[in-house]
Amino acid sequence: MKKALFLDRDGVVNLELDYVYRIEDFEFVPGIFELCAEFQQRGFLIFIITNQAGIARGYYSEADFRKLTNWMVQEFKSNGITIEKTYHCPHHPDFGGECDCRKPNPGMILQARAEYDLDLKQSVLIGDKQSDIQAGINAGILTNIRFNNTIITKDLISWDTL
Q: Is 25 a catalytic residue?
């Protein structure tokens, strides 16, 4: 079984702005590439899990989301980092009802576990909202880190415990 790093997108990978779906509005959080490189070097597979209620609200389309995601993944690749997969929840309870994938539900994490044979107890989740952390807890991830800063560093992690 493999270990994984799960990253929320808005607020962890990129600066939090309301409903980012255009490349020109996307700004990486300083330090995210260095942090991911450290995890990758330590044998972690990297996944992005993101609620995208803007799709349900009609602010942007699945195609808009895919275009931005493909560009983002390529930017990681240009920095020597492989994003295994990006999982997204396009739902919102006010626009279509409940689902299993919207954080704090663990659906995206559990899907990654099934597809990649992941050991969630050895995995790490970094999110900026309590719903991110709760999704990790609900999935059985033991190391869930709430990031609420503007620069992400390797010091965010207690490497001795991983």
A: no
